[in-house]
Amino acid sequence: MTAEVSLGMPQLPAPDYPAEVRARLEADAREVIARYPGSRSALLPLLHLVQSEEGYVTRTGVRFCADLLELTTAEVTAVATFYSMYRRKNGGDYQVGVCTNTLCAVMGGDAIFEALQEHLGVGNGETTDDGKVSVEHIECNAACDYAPVVMVNWEFFDNQTIESAKKLVDDLRAGAEVAPTRGARLCTFKETSRILAGFPDQREGAVAESGGAGPASLTGLKLAKGGTGKVVSPRSSAAETEGE
User: Fold this and answer.
1) How far apart are CA 15 and CA 60, in angstroms?
2) Where in the chain is the domain with CATH 1.10.10?
3) What does the note accompanying the cofactor annotation read (predicted)?
C-alpha cells in the first residue's frame, strides 16, 4: 500500500477564475511582477489587481497570488488581512472613509461618522442596500490641516461638515458627478484598485490634477522655515494665504 504525502504548508482550497478571466489577470500580473527584482515583492500590487476584479480579495484571489508568486496562501492571507486597504468582503462602488483620528475627531469627524451611519442606515464597514456606498472610520491620511477629512476611494474631501458629508453620499448614490477637493474625478472602487495595482490612470486630467500641497500645508512649511511670523487660518482662501 502506498500513501500520498504532501510536504509544506497546506494551501487554501478555492475555485479558480474562469479561463478567460485567469488568462487576462495572469497577463496583467506578469507585467507587474516583471517590475520587481524578486517576484514576492509584487504581492501588494497583485492583491490590488485581484481586488479590482471582484471588489474584494476573495479566496480565489488569494490562491491566484500564491500560485504566481510561489507563496503559500497563508503568507498571502497574512498580508491581505494586515492592510485595511484590502477588503475581506464585498462592498459598495464607493468606499467612504471618515477620519476619526485625533484632530479630525476633535474638529467634527466623530459627529460626521455617526451622522452618516444614521443617515444611510448602516454600521461601520457596512454597505447600503443599493450597493453604492460603504462607510468606515479610517485612521489619519495625512491631511490634518484640512480636518475633518472624508475620503472616497482614497480621494480627499476636505473641511467636511455633517451636511456636506450627507450631500456627498446622497450624490454618490444618485449617480451625480462628484469631484474631490484635490485630484481628478472619482472612479469606482474596482477602478481605483486597478490604478493602485500600478496600471495607468486613464481619467482625464488625472496627472495634472493629481493633487498637491494646499495653502494650509504650505503655510505650515513657511512657518517652519521662518518665512512668516503670522499664523494663517487653515480655512483661509488660497489667495489670502499667498498674500501672506
Assistant:
1) 6
2) 19-82
3) Binds 1 [2Fe-2S] cluster.
Segment 153-160 mean pLDDT: 94
- Indicate the residue type of 57: V
The bridge status of strand 150-152 relative to strand 155-157 is antiparallel
C-alpha grid cell, residue 181: 477637493
Asked if the model's pLDDT at residue 147 lies above 60, the reply is yes
The DSSP annotation for 2-49 comes to ------SPPPPP-PPPPHHHHHHHHHHHHHHHTTSSSGGGGHHHHHHH
Q: Which residues are annotated as a binding site for [2Fe-2S] cluster?
A: 99, 104, 140, 144
4: pLDDT confidence band, cut at 50, 70 and 90? Answer: low
Binding residue numbers: 99, 104, 140, 144
Residue 119, all three cell numbers: 443617515
Integer Cα distance of 179 and 155 in angstroms: 9
- Identify the CATH assignment for 94-196 out of 3.30.2320.30, 3.40.640.10, 3.40.30.10, 2.120.10.30: 3.40.30.10
Confidence of residue 199 (pLDDT cuts 50, 70, 90): very high
CA dist 15 and 112 (Å) reads 40
Per-residue confidence band for 242, with pLDDT thresholds at 50, 70 and 90: very low
Interatomic CA distance for residues 32 and 37, integer angstroms: 11
Q: Dump pLDDT digits (tens) for 10-30.
A: 566 788 999 999 999 999 999
Is 180:186 a contact under the CB 8 Å cutoff?
yes
- Strands, sheet with 155-157, edge to edge from the N-terminal-most edge strand: 126-127, 133-138, 94-99, 150-152, 155-157
Cell of 215: 495653502
